[in-house]
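Contributing new records

If you add data, match the layout below exactly. Sequence lines come first and carry their own label; structure lines follow with theirs. Keep one chain per record. Anything else will be rejected by the validation script.
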Amino acid sequence: MAALKIETAVPPEQSSVVLRAYRLQAGMTYTSLHDGLKAEGFVIYAGQGDLFETLFRISTMGNLTSADINRLLQCCARLR
């Protein structure tokens, strides 16, 4: 995500391994990102409460491979 200039909301050393929060880039809405990723088979989560406008969260649960992560990153790059 750092290579895509998508900032973490919490420093990685203080973040959960399973659930990470990222800042939405300028001009991007959670809804457009969510819908675009869902069309590719990924589900993300909004920031809670007022953070809906500025954050999205990704949970890395289940049997994920490096190919899954690479595909997610490619989709994020296309949707920016």
